[in-house]
Amino acid sequence: xxxxxxxxxxxxxxxxxxxxxxxxxxxxxxxxxxxxxxxxxxxxxxxxxxxxxxxxxxxxxxxxxxxxxxxxxxxxxxxxxxxxxxxxxxxxxxxxxxxxxxxxxxxxxxxxxxxxxxxxxxxxxxxxxxxxxxxxxxxxxxxxxxxxxxxxxxxxxxxxxxxxxxxxxxxxxxxxxxxxxxxxxxxxxxxxxxxxxxxxxxxxxxxxxxxxxxxxxxxxxxxxxxxxxxxxxxxxxxxxxxxxxxxxxxxxxxxxxxxxxxxxxxxxxxxxxxxxxxxxxxxxxxxxxxxxxxxxxxxxxxxxxxxxxxxxxxxxxxxxxxxxxxxxxxxxxxxxxxxxxxxxxxxxxxxxxxxxxxxxxxxxxxxxxxxxxxxxxxxxxxxxxxxxxxxxxxxxxxxxxxxxxxxxxxxxxxxxxxxxxxxxxxxxxxxxxxxxxxxxxxxxxxxxx
Length: 449
Fold this sequence. Notes:
By secondary structure, this protein is of the alpha+beta class. It contains 22 helices and 13 strands.
């Protein structure tokens, strides 16, 4: 079917297409950039496919890099921009459910498109020939459907990560997954075990950072959760019969993720903050469910999950800290807020407020108005403390260890104890945070000179 679709190209991408065309080669935009342009979205990358061989591509452009030369990919570098240009290819046999053992170059763009994962990604375009869409990708875009190119069993048997990519595209584009494709994911879900932890983590993160983190429930529906994040699976079958809650643990968790900004640290915190609840659930004589100390088990299980998924240590430490204190009770008075800031750390307190607020918003909607009023007050108090630069940590204390040593106090544990004492006093009374005042307090109450 012919489509009268025009795609506005960035100057560099047009230059690459034109250069290939003028030298007698076919070239097309392919994959996600074509899909996103049709959807009216801004592409992150502009990938180009051509019948030119890698050495021929390299001969036409002054600066290139052999980023995937074995599979026909050359990166063309123009200024600070990089564009992947790949020779039309047919994939060889897949033996490990991850990548082809070999590739064969072809002169046909249709053959190249036939190896792609989903119909919405198997569309090509250039200004001369327009749209090339041999598998009905545009119709699926119009219908909002994720469908594999050809047999879903074959596609997922080639690269098992495509099962997670289907869920990710569903979340990012607000598309539904074709029934036969969904059934195939359920049938083949265990193949995801062949995929590296890093690639699984990155797809899970993209799902979480989408506009529709509730699509995470598709991982449960298809069985993928068992092989990607098994710690979360019990949350789907753990009810919360409690006046403060309206959803089971999983739904509450996913709603809380949707309530917070699209930040990797914050959304992973919301996903994992209650995974300890199934393991500590108790029910009292009135039939009310309780989850005492769940934050401790959530922290431990989250550490196990993130280590398996190869999270970097810096991200892990931030997420675990927020999970540990996500249930912290903070009164709406300046002293309580300063104490909380001191405990969690000045640099992380704002994120903790966001986490607690998102958590509460995903509980019983009937309690939301009262809690919203409390959070408005908490934010006002926090912003006042921040604007006044009141001290809530040792870094902003008006004295340091060297000042105490100058008083004749020997370096060691005593220095730390005295600084913490002074910090406690300053948190109680911010106006005390002056060097002379604090040193005077030490002389008065600890006998220092």
